[in-house]
Specification:
It is built from 8 helices and 13 strands. Strands 9-10-11-7-12 form a 5-stranded mixed β-sheet, with helices on both faces. The termini are far apart. Helix 2 crosses helix 3, helix 3 packs antiparallel against helix 7 and helix 4 packs antiparallel against helix 6. It has a domain of 120 residues. The longest helix has 21 residues. The radius of gyration is 20 Å and the shape is globular. It is α+β, with helices and mostly antiparallel strands. It is 39% helix and 18% strand.
Length: 285
Amino acid sequence: MDYWTGLGLKMEYENQHFVTEGYIKAWLDPETPQGAYVWVFSKRRKSIFKKSPRSLFSESDFYTVYDDKGNRILELEHKLKDIEDKFFLLRDNKLKMHKPLSPDDRLTIAMFASSMFARTKFQKEIQIDIWEEFLDVVDKMPEDISNSIKESAEYKQAKSLHKQPMPFNLYNFVNISVPVLYRMNTCIYETNDAPGFITSDNPCLWMDPALIYPSEAETWFGLGSRKLNVILPISPSQCISLMASDFDGYKEIDPEYAKIIEELIISQAQEKIVVNKQIIKENWL
């Protein structure tokens, strides 16, 4: 089944979020002016400041590709918005209310978690580096071989993907990973502790349980691993955990496990951590 269809629509989006604005709004602090700001901790500056979700985690034409005439093609931004809207309805109308999840709900969660992992600036930089390495290898080949490769359609495609890898990367990653995530148990961890769950500019964690439990043997924790654990905070009070053998349903999280998730989010953040209170914890420093 193709989980990513409907390409071809052009829209006038320019400021494109690699961590979606609607997701970050779950961390709005009601005590800020008009309740319109979240608090952002900078790992580099070791300081915290308030920021509007609209102005966080975005770049001009982050996902945009161009046709042969130089026209901007923005269907990826549109498709991501469709995934976001479905998830936000689920979050606000079911997850917050502790309602049972239908198969369609689990598909919505799998789609959202998969795209949140693959759409970040961190992932774009990885993909650019991969294609750059290939182009460098071709450049260093004997001149006749290099020139022959550079005339091929495959090489021209590689150059295009080096320039803008996101549509190709997201399309493939979502279609490959969603069936796996859909079959996992869905646990919604909950906490009432302040400031609750935090998030970041790289919010979706794919991890090996050995990072948490020293007694566990480390494994390759890609899509083929039965120990793969996908963790995604969705608000200060709730965090999704997808895992083959985990509890299924709503569950109050153990404070020590919540602290470990917090530390993992901090370690995987590129630069910015989002919290709903003006708080800096000692371990963040």
